[in-house]
Write a structure and sequence with these properties.
Length: 728
């Protein structure tokens, strides 16, 4: 079946004169003249044809500013063309709103312009027909779809960013509340994505326009201050430019020296971050030196450091260690001849192209001296990792959290044992490093060595650290790990693992509890017919048997009640009393749904009792815990338990001691505990008067015998005159 195409068939030579929108031939011809500088005539004709289709599809539509709607897609196409993108990208930019805002469908575009243009337009089109439960969910879904499209073709995000850039340039036409909403979203996400992909020019403009609408008074004040400083420092900058240029020529270096001005939002961020006034910001103006080769970059650095003294700690080598988006340059700050610090960026011409265009550098220039597709490879890797993170995210809020973490990385560079470099966000820990190496390494991590010294998992890494991860097959992530990590990959993997592990643990415990309850009715688990299971699931409106077991294991349903529902009514048997049942053995490795009460902190050897709590499974208390009196009013929720013969793991115990205030008491206590192969998790000291103090601490023990050995050795210390285990 032939697909009808929505357009009017004006002859090419008379089409513009016949169209009712006056003057439209001017912007399209300007666009065609621009693309004609680097594309052949047939490609320019295709772009004209896309314009005619788009103008016809948007005929009669107007923007809030009052201009014909087609002006917006044309402006977006021009922004894309300035990056010297291919003809298909420019055509898609012209047509990027026809699917969303007109009756045109994707198949029409495919038949008229080809599948690639149709896919690009479809990828850029906004998600507007889907119903969401919340604004946050809608935003997360929008970005998820955008990232999916980006991973398939990076041109999608370039067109999307160009679309957002033109919308920001014309934001004045919208209502004030709408302007604020769009400006905030642009600053939080789109400007950050542009920066992450190396599109620094677009990123800076998006930041400044967003800042202007979000904080107009601050924007105006900083802009005025910049203009005042420009006038005061014009002659100084000119002299510095001449001095640098002359020194490089004396060194035999062919270089282009130019000035660079920091954008308004970057100045504001630095003022906020470092709590500085505008007069304290020294790097508003900087110089950029562009040379031919990487060797020339380092020679230039040496020449400039001979001319002006470098400021220690202000040098960064992004050539040896490029940024995550492929950016390469040498950054140095020197103390200038006129009593002020001066920042310089030194790079090759090829590096400069990538620095200005990022992922678009592949289209912007063709060069033999650089792998111009490197930024695209890095961007694609980042996108695929982010999509993998999104699949593990439990909800839209988590995904947006991961996205924003990835978009604002202040990077730390550390080394693997083989000398490879790993880039991590500022504040990353050894556990983040382990997950960056490989997911399996992260999930089995038990510790690390930093610079050949053993350190705990929560150790924060610094630039240049050598990190070696220690793993164990028995190690598994715990909820506390979430407080140790900052990278989205590590956080998402831990959450996903815990979610799956909680499910497995609750199912396993639920099966054990239900089997025990059935045996108490003299009705073995094997006697339960599948028809009875299906009927019970239907009555409970549940889909799977494992769901029911998970509810039992997590404490949401009592095993006794479920067992009675499974046993046939005609099977009348007197229920065995709880104290006559075989008690449930606690091995210490049951998983997340056997938890130990923090009030009494039971350890192997204590008499114990279990209590069902919704969402936590069985909470284990000591039989003499002072807090269980209230719980005894609900005997149906109690379960008889005991310690197994062999119990795995270590258990925490509260100890309290009264000591004399003597120097070194706490150190001796720590030594005694360490000698008994135990560890102190927490210490709290309360000074009672000038002579005595009370120390409360939590130690890890294997069982009651281990605790007795620790307490016996502590009592030998003369400074300790009272020691007891605390419950309740």
């Amino acid at each position: 079946m032939q697909i009808p195409v929505l357009r009017r068939n004006w002859p090419a030579s008379t089409w513009y004169k016949s169209h009712s929108i006056p003057g439209d031939d001017v912007p399209v011809e300007d666009l065609c003249q621009l693309v004609g500088e680097y594309l052949d005539r047939s490609a320019v004709d295709d772009i004209r044809r896309a314009y005619r289709f788009g103008a016809d599809a948007h005929y009669g539509q107007y923007r809030r500013s009052g201009e014909p709607y087609i002006h917006h897609p044309l402006a977006v196409a021009r922004i894309v063309a300035e990056m010297r993108m291919d003809s298909r990208s420019i055509m898609a930019a012209i047509l990027h709103d026809v699917i969303e805002d007109t009756p045109t469908v994707k198949n029409q575009l495919a038949s008229e312009f080809g599948d690639d243009v149709a896919e690009l337009v479809d990828g850029v089109s906004k998600i507007s027909q889907i119903e969401f439960d919340s604004k946050e969910e809608a935003e997360a879904e929008n970005f998820r779809k955008m990232l999916l499209a980006m991973s398939q073709d990076i041109r999608v995000i370039l067109i999307k960013l160009a679309d957002r850039l033109h919308n920001m340039r014309t934001l004045e036409a919208l209502r004030p509340d709408k302007r604020l909403l769009i400006a905030r979203q642009t600053l939080d996400i789109y400007a950050a994505i542009a920066n992450r992909l190396g599109l620094y020019g677009w990123s800076r403009e998006l930041e400044d326009i967003s800042f202007m609408y979000l904080y107009p008074k601050r924007y105006k004040a900083i802009t005025k201050a910049i203009k005042r400083r420009q006038g005061n420092r014009k002659s100084v900058m000119k002299k510095l430019h001449t001095a640098i240029d002359s020194r490089l020529k004396q060194s035999g270096l062919q270089a282009t020296v130019s000035g660079r001005e920091k954008n308004v939002y970057s100045i504001y961020k630095k003022m906020q971050r470092k709590r500085l006034g505008f007069s304290d910001i020294q790097d508003i103006y900087a110089f950029r030196v562009i040379v031919d080769t990487a060797d020339d970059c380092y020679r230039t650095l040496g020449s400039i450091h001979n001319l002006y003294k470098p400021i220690p700690g202000r040098f960064k080598d992004y050539i040896a260690i490029p940024k995550a988006n492929g950016y390469q340059s040498l950054h140095t700050t020197v103390f200038g001849a006129f009593g002020e610090s001066l920042e310089l960026q030194i790079r090759t011409r090829a590096m400069h192209r990538i620095a200005e265009a990022g992922v678009a550098s592949h289209w912007l220039y063709k060069s033999d001296d650089v792998k111009t597709n490197k930024p695209q490879e890095l961007a694609r890797t980042w996108l695929l990792e982010l999509l993998d993170t999104q699949q593990q995210a439990g909800n839209p809020g988590e995904f947006l959290e991961h996205l924003k973490i990835d978009l604002f990385p202040d990077e730390v560079y550390v080394f693997t044992p083989k000398g490879d470099i790993k880039k991590l966000p500022l504040g990353a820990t050894t556990l983040d490093f382990a997950f960056a190496v490989h997911t399996d390494v992260g999930t089995r991590c038990v510790g690390a060595r930093v610079n050949h010294q053993p350190v705990p998992l929560h150790t924060v890494l610094n630039n240049g650290d050598h990190v070696e991860v220690m793993t164990s097959r028995s190690s598994r992530p715990t909820p506390s790990w979430l407080s140790y990590v900052v990278t989205s990959k590590a956080r998402a993997t831990i959450r996903s693992f815990l979610k799956n592990q909680r499910r497995k643990d609750s199912v396993r415990l639920g099966k054990k509890l239900l089997d025990r309850a059935l045996k108490s009715l003299s009705y073995g688990p094997r006697r339960v017919k599948s028809e009875a299971k299906v009927a019970l699931l239907e009555s409970l409106n549940m889909n799977a048997w494992e769901d029911l077991l998970a509810d039992i294991g997590s404490g949401k349903r009592l095993p006794k009640i479920v067992a009675r529902q499974l046993v046939p009514a005609e099977h009348s048997v007197e229920e065995i009393r709880e104290d006559q049942q075989q008690p449930l053995a606690i091995h210490g490795a049951e998983g997340m749904f056997i938890t130990y009460a923090k009030c009494c902190r039971p350890i192997p050897g204590d008499a114990i009792i279990g209590f069902f709590t919704a969402g936590r499974g069985i909470v284990v208390h000591t039989a003499d815990c002072p807090n269980i009196g209230e719980y005894r009013k609900h005997p149906e929720k109690w379960i008889h338990i005991h310690w197994a013969e062999r119990v795995k793991g270590q258990f925490s115990v509260n100890l309290k001691m009264d000591t004399q205030n003597k120097r070194g008491v706490l150190a001796r206590v720590a030594t005694v505990i360490a000698e008994q192969e135990s560890n102190i998790n927490n210490v709290h000291v309360v000074e009672r008067d000038g002579r005595y103090s009370t120390i409360q601490f939590i130690v890890e023990v294997d069982d009651r015998q281990h605790l007795a050995n620790i307490m016996r050795n502590l009592r030998q210390e003369k400074s300790i005159f009272r020691l007891a285990r605390v419950k309740g």
